[in-house]
Amino acid sequence: MSIGSIIGAIVIGLIIGALARLILPGRQAIPIWLTIVVGIVAALIGTYIARALGVADTSGIDWIELLIQLVLAVIGVGAVAGIYGRRGVAR
Questions:
Q1: 19-61 pLDDT, tens per residue?
Q2: Most exposed of 17, 44, 50, 79 (fewest Cβ within 10 Å)?
């Protein structure tokens, strides 16, 4: 993975994290920086999964890779919101 790929994953991760938060129903009681971190991690993991499946490098936009990243981000934001929210309730 080159430095350009890492920077690309960070930028895509920012967008993916925000989209995941918009897709999830209800309010997520987590800070935006945590949403961004989840999006970046989902983008990196999604890229690895797409490469393992052989769908990461196509001519044009890699829709399947983006879909994998978005699904991972939605799952991640939902899980983190559940954990973070539960932590706040216990106080």
A1: 998 898 888 788 888 988 999 999 889 989 988 998 877 787 7
A2: 79
Which band of pLDDT confidence, cut at 50, 70 and 90, is reported for residue 71? very high
Q: What DSSP assignment string belongs to 23-80?
A: HSSS---S-HHHHHHHHHHHHHHHHHHHHHHT-SS-SS--HHHHHHHHHHHHHHHHHH
Single-letter amino acid code for the residue at 48? Y
Residue 83's alpha-carbon distances to 19, 56, 79, 87, in angstroms, are 20, 31, 6, 6
Residues making up the chain, counted from first to last:
91
In degrees, rounded to 5, the angle at the alpha carbon of residue 3 between the alpha carbons of residues 2 and 9 is 95
> Would you state the structure tokens that stand for residue 61, as one six-digit string?
């936009």
* The pair of three-digit structure tokens given for residue 37, joined into one six-digit string: 């971190």
